[in-house]
Specification:
Keywords: Membrane, Transmembrane, Transmembrane helix. By secondary structure, the protein is mostly helical. It is 67% helix and 6% strand. The chain has 11 helices and 4 strands, in the order αβααααααββαααβα.
Length: 307
Amino acid sequence: MAKGLIVCFALALVVGVAWALRPVRTSGPVTPSEAWLAAERHARRVTAVAWCLLVPVPLLALLLVTPYLQALAVGALTAALPLLAGTAFVAVHVVGEVTWPRPAGAVRRAPLVRRRLADLAPRALSVLTGAWTLLLVLLLVVCGAAAGTGGRSLSYAHADGTTSTASPFPGWYYGRLVVGALVVLLVGCLAALVLVARRAAVADTDPVDDVALRRTSARRVLSGVQLVVGATLAGCLFFAANVVRVVEPRWADALGAGSAETVAAVAAVIAIGIGVTALVVAVRGARATLRPASAHVEQTPAAQAAA
């Protein structure tokens, strides 16, 4: 059974990586205005900076504060590190939206349209981010209820009188910091998406192309957010499965007596699958680009020079 799971997981990994690396395109104008070109360049720069800060900055912060914290506190901070990294990711996008290029010139043309988040945020990414979030909260609640005193280990008294204890276990000691970081991340994500919906329209650009640029920005934001939430879920599930495998509590015998180890192994494989899925989706979202689709405005000298 274990070999079959490994083979299935390996095949899924190969298919997922191949799918992530195939060309990704969305729509954009054939003859973009100078304002549209500036906005698209700004959006790409913001996303590039956000991804560059996603990993190095939190790791550097962890290295700087580690000497001043106890070992247990470092463990709790490490558990929340992906979400803290995601907070830095969305903060960059918030700054990028605040500094979005404004219309300039004596005569400016831009449609006044009220846009909703539901019209801009990709439905699949929104659902996936929500699913990762709900599963993470549910897992932390269950582990918090099952954890022993201190909220960082799992203990179980067996029928033969022996007691098994193992850690680290994602109980409330780790979960409270993870939940706090998750709330901050989601608030930042919502703020970034609201700014995407309310930012100034790109001058001299067809509304369809302006919406395409907004949807690309929303896709890039949600791709990073679902990655860090999915990574946190995968990590918590993996460590919880490892502890269950060691302790072998009777309530984990979902497949019959003595099946706790098999259940834990399956949970560990699922955790790895969640991590890979989140990474594949993030790569797809980060590689989303704009390509020419249809001509809407007259090509300006600046656009001709750029072409």
